[in-house]
Amino acid sequence: MILITGATGNLGQLVIKELLNNKAEFVAGVRNINQYNGHHCNLEYIDYDNLSVMKNAFKNIDTIIFISGNAETEHRIQQHRNLIDAAKQENIKHIIYLSFITVTDPHSKFSFTRQHIDTESYLKASGISHTIVRSCWYMENIKTEIINALDNQVFIDNSNTGKISFISRQDVAKGLAQIAINVNLQDRIYTFTGSAAYSMQNIVDLMNANCHKQIKYTLYSDNDYKKRLIDAKLPEFLAEAITLNRVDIDNGDYAFICQDVNFINKKSPLDISDYIFSICCTH
Q1: Between the CA of residue 156 and those of 14, 147, 164, 233, what are the distances in Å?
Q2: Quick count: other Cβ atoms within 10 Å of Cβ 238?
Q3: What is the 3-state secondary structure (H, E, C) of the chain?
Q4: pLDDT of the residue at 65
Q5: Which residues touch 79 (CB under 8 Å, ≥6 apart)?
Q6: CA 171, 176, 181, 187 torsion-angle sign
Q7: Contact at 8 Å (CB) between 66 and 43?
Q8: I want to staple 270 with a disulfide (CB 3.0 to 4.6 A). Which of 30, 130, 146, 168 is the partner?
Q9: What tens digit of pLDDT does each residue of 93-122 get?
Q10: What are the Cα distances from residue 272, in Å, to 65, 139, 210, 269?
Q11: 181-193 as b/e, with b when 16 or more CB fall inside 10 Å?
């Protein structure tokens, strides 16, 4: 039996759909069962902050698809340790942990990198059999900026010439589900990226080519960009993390290209040029 955490999020729902399509036996771990309005499936109450609740949820579970919660770094580190402790005490056979591509950079400025490094290390020390998937930046993360640029002819960001091998949530979700249901894919470290890397100026060029626009790229300072994110109602800790992520982007941390997702999903991942074209066609 598989349990998926983070089931109510965008990625979690895509993983659930993949598991349903594959007729896998699973339960979705959610914090508020009465408020769940996602894909119809069996639900289990979990709380990253409550060890006994998680131990109860993990009874009769063999495999956990572990998707991070939504909290500041220090809080999230403890939450992840709680989950691993509960899994160990309940003799979970395997954990598939969704990590992040920047864990290989010890100087990463993205605050969540430290949380992923800690979780990977703690998971390894636990002795639990595990698979780690290090994902690149989701292309959906810039959807709002793409739409704003289509409306206003200006694309705003704070990165210079650094490139990102964007990956879609759908490709990540399919890969996580495939690993969960295929034991022969487990006990490895994977890196999920797109097939090509793009700078933000490249993104603007693709928008202009696909949408017949004359959008200009506007480079913001870190301070101005952070203020813009806060004005858009992002929590301050998240706005700061995304702003400082610019350093990792410009240092080349996101430009790495890997074929792992092609191998697992048996197809090429969605390219951001096609993603941009789909937004242009529907907006």
Answers
A1: 29, 11, 16, 17
A2: 15
A3: CEEECCCCCHHHHHHHHHHHHCCCCEEEEECCHHHCCCCCCCEEECCCCCHHHHHHHCCCCCEEEECCCCCCHHHHHHHHHHHHHHHHHCCCCEEEEEEEHHHHCCCCCCHHHHHHHHHHHHHHHHCCEEEEEEECCEHHHHHHHHHHHHHHCEEEECCCCCEECCECHHHHHHHHHHHHHCHHHCCCEEEECCCCCEEHHHHHHHHHHHHCCCCEEEECCHHHHHHHHHHCCCCHHHHHHHHHHHHHHHCCCCCCCCCHHHHHHCCCCCCHHHHHHHHHHHC
A4: 98
A5: 48, 49, 69, 71
A6: positive
A7: no
A8: 168
A9: 999 999 999 999 989 999 899 999 999 999
A10: 26, 7, 11, 9
A11: beeebbeeebbbb
CA 115 to chain centre: 13
Q: Which two structure tokens, joined as six digits, stand for 55?
A: 């131990």
Amino acid at 262: N
Beta-strand pair 189-192/2-4: unpaired
Beta bridge partners of 163: 199
Q: Is the dihedral of CA 150, 193, 138, 24 positive or negative?
A: positive
Residue at token pair 């056979």: 93
Q: Are 3 and 93 in contact (CB under 8 A)?
A: no
| pLDDT cut 70: percent of the chain above it | 100
Residue count (the chain)? 283
Alpha carbons 170 and 112: distance in angstroms, whole number: 22
Instruction: Say which range, 49-58, 80-89, 274-283, has the weakest mean pLDDT.
Output: 274-283
Compute CA 104 distance to the chain's CA centroid, rounded to the nearest angstrom.
16
What is the reported pLDDT for 213? Answer: 86
- Please state the rounded mean pLDDT for residues 139-166: 93
Residue in the block written with tokens 């197809």: 267
* Percentage of the chain exceeding pLDDT 90: 84
